[in-house]
Amino acid sequence: MRTIKVDAINSTNDFARNLYEGNSNFKPVCVSAREQTAGRGQRGSGWNAIAGQNLTFSILYPKIEVAVDHQFLLSAAVSIAVKHALEIFSIPKLSVKWPNDIMSGSFKIGGILIENILNHNKINATIIGMGLNINQTEFKQLPQAASLKMITGRHFQLDEVLNIIIQKIENELKAINPENEAQILENYAENMFRRNKVSTFLLPDNSYLTGIIRGVTTNGRLNVEIENSVFKTFDLKELKLVY
Question: pTM (2 decimals)?
Answer without folding.
Answer: 0.92
